[in-house]
Q: What sequence folds into this?
């Protein structure tokens, strides 16, 4: 496991070496200078290494030359021990030879079919209680993403830590893997609940005027595992410290979008990813969502108010979760779409005959009159099934930018 190093300084390295007091050795100036230079140079590789390890989290995301940015969401892999791990809830004809390897094969198929710019794993990446070595299971679970050389991120679910690795230990291991943009927690926050709270900025098309301006903002949060409050039963929730971080980060990004250079009106759209659905996911029925709802909403038993926090911020256009494998719907509430991905992993509970699935989200930039690209014009989503043809279903727009010049006044119905 690779842990990120602190940024180092010469004084920090000297302070760590405490020696017993000795009589001073007097050297001539030339020898003293050479020895000092050698000591300084010997410290440089440590500092450079620390910087390089930190740089991987600063890799820049940007829209493709076609003005699109595509995200593949993988929810609930429940990976365990690979080939020896049996599949759950599949048809009798699928049982023989079915294992975690089917989950890996599905990821490979999705990557080849969609060619995403970013892969997001939204928790229960491993079913840790069934693993013999959590670190190896994590390596295997993320192997398809790592080998693709596509940037990827992950948040934790409620089953990732149920082994020898603690919740923090799991996230630290993820952060140390190749090609990940995952972060343990914000570096500028003294305290925040959970592990894996961070944000990523997506710049415009490389070479365009928006190249260095974030036109799409991604928020990742740790929705917890189980309640630690004795009087409150059930699952965890997004705490006040996380919401404060989100508010501050959203405010900073909104301000940057409106500031020079290329000052914009309004704010760049945002997307939020975490594992456990919010209580507001229970606001829908079959008449006002796209997809299916085949089980109850397993949110926390308390409402911490994060949905209201996002509504107040105004930039988040959609939220994406996992946790409830038999739900894959998207419904709009107070200007925000709340979306499930649907169960992905073959060692996760499911429904025989109901194909495993993944969610795809595509943000498309506005084409400018004089050529080039502007800000985000629309955000669209669909799902793909792990069937013979990798069928795409339930395509829908989550957000479309409306020009202020085309808005009509609200019509008041006559009595």
A:
């Amino acid at each position: 496991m690779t842990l990120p190093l602190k940024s180092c300084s010469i004084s920090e390295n000297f302070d760590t070496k405490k020696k017993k007091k000795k009589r001073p050795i007097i050297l001539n100036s030339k020898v003293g200078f050479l020895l000092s230079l050698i000591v300084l140079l010997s410290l440089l590789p440590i500092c450079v290494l620390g910087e390089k390890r930190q740089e991987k989290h600063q890799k820049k995301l940007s829209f493709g030359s076609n003005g699109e940015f595509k995200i593949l969401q993988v929810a609930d892999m429940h990976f365990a021990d690979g080939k020896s791990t049996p599949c759950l809830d599949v048809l009798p004809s699928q049982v023989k030879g079915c294992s975690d390897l089917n989950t890996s094969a599905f990821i490979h198929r999705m990557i080849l079919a969609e060619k995403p710019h970013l892969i997001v794993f939204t928790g229960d990446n491993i079913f840790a209680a069934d693993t013999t070595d959590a670190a190896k299971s994590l390596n295997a679970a993320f192997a398809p993403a790592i080998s693709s050389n596509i940037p990827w991120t992950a948040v934790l679910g409620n089953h990732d830590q149920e082994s020898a690795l603690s919740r923090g230990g799991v996230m630290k291991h993820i952060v140390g893997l190749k090609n990940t943009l995952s972060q343990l927690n914000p570096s500028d926050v003294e305290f925040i609940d959970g592990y894996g709270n961070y944000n990523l900025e997506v710049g415009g098309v490389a070479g365009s005027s928006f190249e260095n301006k974030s036109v799409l903002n991604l928020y990742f949060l740790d929705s917890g595992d189980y309640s630690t409050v004795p009087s409150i039963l059930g699952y965890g929730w997004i705490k006040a410290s996380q919401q404060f971080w989100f508010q501050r980060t959203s405010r900073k990004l909104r301000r940057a979008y409106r500031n020079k250079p290329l000052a914009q009106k309004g704010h760049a759209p945002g997307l939020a990813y975490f594992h456990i659905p919010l209580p507001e996911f229970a606001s829908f029925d079959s008449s006002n969502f796209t997809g299916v709802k085949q089980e109850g909403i397993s949110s926390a038993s308390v409402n911490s108010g994060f949905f209201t926090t996002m509504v107040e911020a105004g930039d988040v256009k959609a939220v994406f979760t996992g946790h409830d494998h038999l739900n894959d719907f998207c419904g709009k509430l107070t200007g925000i779409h709340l979306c499930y991905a649907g169960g992905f992993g073959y060692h996760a509970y499911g429904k025989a005959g109901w194909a495993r699935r993944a969610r795809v989200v595509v943000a498309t930039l506005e084409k400018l009159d004089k050529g080039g690209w502007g800000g985000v014009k629309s955000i669209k989503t669909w799902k793909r099934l792990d069937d013979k043809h990798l069928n795409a279903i339930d395509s829908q727009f989550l957000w479309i930018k409306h020009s202020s010049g085309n808005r009509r006044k609200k019509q008041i119905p006559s009595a």
